[in-house]
Amino acid sequence: DTGVSQDPRHKITKRGQNVTFRCDPISEHNRLYWYRQTLGQGPEFLTYFQNEAQLEKSRLLSDRFSAERPKGSFSTLEIQRTEQGDSAMYLCASSLSFGVFNEKLFFGSGTQLSVL
Amino acid sequence: AQTVTQSQPEMSVQEAETVTLSCTYDTSESDYYLFWYKQPPSRQMILVIRQEAYKQQNATENRFSVNFQKAAKSFSLKISDSQLGDAAMYFCAYRNSGAGSYQLTFGKGTKLSVIP
Fold this sequence. Notes:
A: globular, B: four-stranded antiparallel sheet, 12 strands, globular
């Protein structure tokens, strides 16, 4: 168990460029979440996967955002035509659970995105 | 929509002393779950303690305990015998209990400093 791994740890990009982040959950975890955290705020929910199915998407996830989890393993989050407002830390979390309360989320250390 | 409010942006405590972090929330649901997460400088969110709304007994995890006041919609965290390693951002979070409720709603956080 090596924990949730996120890559890259930091990403600097110019406005208008596309970026892609990767999350490797803990092996065999069936649930995977993406959250976004801006400076001085708590994390905000973006999207949720159960295995390879994307079951919930936040209204925060505009058309420029897309997330995938092929084969129910790692996940990618892509932002197209980045804007300065996309600057934030993107957190990934995973869990192995079939309930709600007993679910324990394991978070990664996040990808810090800076859009210039 | 549910909201979570943490009214203390920063708190400090002397090592070995006790500190209480405040959290209030707003919901129209009768059954839900509440959590406290810790985010150290490493950025990795860690679950500290959780509470089921239908349980009157306050949750306790070693030096961490909560004071859950359902009628007042208050969920404070008490840290006893504070240690240097407790220094971190603390986030209060809410989650609906129903099936299909996957997202956590976080407060803005309280930065806790521990003074040696």
